[in-house]
Give the backbone structure.
Amino acid sequence: MNRVSSIIHLDYARQHGLTGQGIGVAILDTGIDFHPDFYSKEGGYRLAGFLDLVNHKTHYYDDNGHGTHTTGILTGNGSVSNGLYCGVAPECHFYSIKVLGKNGEGHIEHVLEAIHWLLQHYKEYNIRIVNISIGSTRGRQFDENSPLVKSVNSLWEHGLVVLTAAGNHGPAPGSIGAPGNSRKIITVGSSDPLQYRFDSDYSSRGPTNSCIKKPDIVAPGSRIVSLAAGSSYQAKSGTSMSTPIVAGCIALLLEKYPDLTNYRWHAIKLLEQDKEITKRYPVNLPDVIDRNYESDIINEKYDFIQEIIKEVLVNKDRQDALTEKADRALTHRFWSIPIFLGIMALVFFLTFTIGDWLKGYLEVGIESLSDVVNKGLIAAGGSEMLRSLLVDGIIAGVGGILTFLPNIFILFLALAFLEDSGYMARVAYVMEGIMSKLGLSGRAFIPMILGFGCTVPAIMASRSLENRRDRFKVMLITPFMSCSARLPIYILFAEMFFQERAMLVAYSMYLIGLVVAILVAAIIHLIDRRKSENYLLIELPEYKAPSARTVAIYVWEKVKDYLTKAGTTIFVASILMWVILNFGPHGYTTEMADSFGSILGHWLVPIFAPIGLGFWQIAVALIAGISAKEVVVSSCAVLFGIPNINSGAGMDTLVGILGAAGFGQLNAFCLMIFCLLYVPCAAALATIRKESGSTRWMLFSALFQLVVAWAVTFVVYRVGLLL
């Protein structure tokens, strides 16, 4: 604790006589064991009380040690160590509530019972602070309406300062569990000063499932020496150690300002016109204040932040000057959008050139695997059906998708660099003008940008829009943005039919998706003339060199999702596709024309023929693509019996088959456009259902996107025939 004392400048507090005297703290943990450091100057034990909700014992104890350690960090007086391991508030009194067992685990019911007890007795013991160095590992399953979060919020609303550990499940985003996902209480993360880090690798972080930034504050949490049973000390690490440090600091603050309550927080929230607070505590603000103070509060916050930054950062003015200079071009009224389009063109150039070079090695591997499996089955006497399933079904379907992995990797690597450098925030800013003319905030463009990666998080990001009507608009147009799942389709058909111009053709898909989304939004705005009041308020960070660690985590998460999909959804889809192509009304067949797939495809041909896609194999592949867009490629591999469809030989074979049926460049271009715009994948549809809370809206969205896709492709095809 001596190291922590210097970091948080406890000597300053001691010089002013601040020790936490008179401040009561409730600690929900594994209990409390005997230790001399808990005696007061007068010789009495500072334990105000003990409540065992696990084993219901009447005497205090700690069968784990965690509670004693955290309590020592907060209020140990360091008597055994001659002040070396003194807690932050060594003279405060504390009430220990045991809610965890000897293995450090417990039940939510015990925590709820402890909170209920506190609400009844906190005044009796003058408890002003509640330290909860525990948390659920299932934060995503506990929303703001859960009993646990509501309970800690009620403590806060009664005037108690509640602190909870962020958890030790980092560094992945969204890893904070309940009750740390509460928007009211203070969530504490861990820093590691020994490694000069503002956050420890293990420290959990947000955003929460309500898009709230967490943790609220970090404190030292690595190798913190504090009390052990008897009269000894030990070192522990975790956000559980960080939380009592902050709790102790608040105890000192309350000792200095004993009348400090949460009233100011509520007043600020009322001035900010926070919807939750104004609904709970209705006040007719025009009768109280003379104007809107929201902008004043925001400016004060940023001024305060700037003051701190100037104190702790060097070369800040130089960095600001460089950022401002770059923004003159990147946020220019006229040049910003062309620059953005040029940057995205460069991204696709790298995706195609470097990605195609790397995927050649995977193609050789997949082709070799297919040959080995086929020969091995022949040698082992495997049936024709089994060989067809493994080689033509699974390896052809899944293997064909895996060969696109290098392209996917390069795409997400480039997007990660753009995002972490601070550029993507500028894109939303420069789109504010265009989006406002469409009746939307520039904030609405943020989900659209996310749609370049995956439609699912893009749809989820629409919850950042406060207006329900705007959220529905964004959910309707965001699927038109070309996600990474469509990239294998573009690469395959662009390289087959357009060769040297393949990159430009694939890039055009992203532009067409963006244009269609904007046009659809414009048409909706013409129908609904109401203007959105959800204006964009976004912080433009300084430009910086992307963090290798941040980029690596981002890319790994995306690649992992891609591989997971290949091993699950695409694997199952490939098997199902093989089944419907190898079985018909009369059972197993080697003639694809007699299969269920052929029958289904021929039924669909009249629908797809007017848009240049009147080929039963293509129709079947498009239907299969609703499960996941990559399945269109794997389905083509199975439909046309090409194990390594993305190889040079595989593409030549497919071009020959399609060319013989009259499928040319115009048909390929129409196929890519239709794949771009038609029904999003099943996961995206499920997300629309969840975010909108309406099955009808999900079905309407799917039908609407299908109609738009058919209409746009029809126009392109008919115009193409005239040229």
The first strand starts at residue 24 and ends at 29. The first helix runs from residue 2 to 7. The domain at 2-258 is CATH 3.40.50.200 (Rossmann fold). The chain has a mean pLDDT of 79.
